Amino acid sequence: MTPTLVRQHPAHVRQRARVDPCARARDWSEIQERMLVPLVEAVHERLDVGAQTRLLGLGCGSGLALLMASARGARVTGVESDSPELLALARRRLLPDRAATAPAGARLVFGSPGDAADARTPAFTVVTAFDPVGCLAGDARRLGERLRSAVALAARGAAVVLTGWGPPERCATSAVVRAAAGAQAGAGARRDDLEEIAHRAGLRPDGSGRVSCPFGYAGRESAVRGLLSTGLFDGAVAATDRTQVVKELTESLHPYLRPDGTVWMPNIFRYLVARVP
């Protein structure tokens, strides 16, 4: 009798198999992504993003920030390294079937920043990373790794924008993440995190700013779906189970529940503009 091969998977792999990646991508695109619009607008305004801009978006997700840059006339390239489902939604936004309506020069790539250009591609004048660091263990290290290959594609003097969560005491969502994710959450944003990442990538800091980005939801169910789509709770889900994390997340939202049933969490985000030497 031929023995049956039983393939063993780590607990976190088994847990992820229960998550519908397409539903998660839709929750990000439909609920959560817009929460960072004030941050994106502030950066685009500060850098005067426009027709002369060749922009590379790292971790472009479902493409809203790229779409906003395109609306200002920029030629955009987006790189998504983690979720093909998010990139598929970005393609629907930026590369519709009718090419006549597609933003000029838009390009989307699944892979690493190095896959975004070749020897014939003009150097990028702006590089953005709108996935904020400071609330997920190891996120600064991962961003630093991506930056090193992205900087090689940028022009001398190009602006590289890094973003992070503000001080925990000014980010209501940080408290929610700590309450529901526990030991799986990051230590929180430190004042000089972005500067340290920039220095390690060989960049020269050239100014920074803070932007208010409140997270507002129609209700607790919408808030839970949106927050789970961020990936901030993946470690907790893998360590326990999704049902338990949803329960704890729902309870942690209680202080931010308004009388009309909506959820409102004030947050401050920080951005750093650095330059390629």
What do you see in this structure?
The chain is of the alpha/beta class and 277 residues long. The chain has a domain of 192 residues: 3-Layer(aba) Sandwich (Rossmann fold). Helices cover 38% and strands 22% of the residues. It contains eleven helices and nine strands. Strand 4, helix 6 and strand 5 form a beta-alpha-beta unit. The termini are far apart. Keywords: Methyltransferase, Transferase.
SSE topology:
Elements: H1 11-16, H2 21-32, H3 37-46, E1 54-58, H4 64-71, E2 75-80, H5 84-94, E3 107-110, E4 124-133, H6 139-151, E5 154-165, H7 172-181, H8 193-200, E6 204-212, E7 215-217, H9 220-228, H10 234-239, H11 242-252, E8 263-265, E9 268-275
Parallel strand pairs: 1-2, 1-4, 2-3, 4-5
Antiparallel strand pairs: 5-9, 6-9, 7-8
GO molecular function, one term: methyltransferase activity
Keywords: Methyltransferase, Transferase
Protein name: SAM-dependent methyltransferase
Average residue pLDDT: 87
Which stretches of 5+ consecutive residues score pLDDT under 50? 1-17
Class by alpha and beta content: alpha/beta
- Fill in the CATH topology of the domain at 19-171 and 186-215 and 267-275: Rossmann fold
CATH class of the domain at 19-171 and 186-215 and 267-275, named Alpha Beta
Strand order of the largest sheet: 3-2-1-4-5-9-6
Q: What is the share of helical residues? A: 25-40%
CATH-defined superfamily of the domain at 19-171 and 186-215 and 267-275: Vaccinia Virus protein VP39
* Net shape: globular
CATH architecture of the domain at 19-171 and 186-215 and 267-275: 3-Layer(aba) Sandwich
Query: Which oligomerization state do the chains in this entry correspond to?
Result: single chain
Largest sheet: 7 strands, mixed
H-E string: HHHEHEHEEHEHHEEHHHEE
CA distance, first residue to last residue:
67 Å
Topology, number of strands: 9
| DSSP helical segment count | 11
GO molecular function: methyltransferase activity
Keywords: Methyltransferase, Transferase
Organism: Streptomyces griseoviridis
Protein name: SAM-dependent methyltransferase
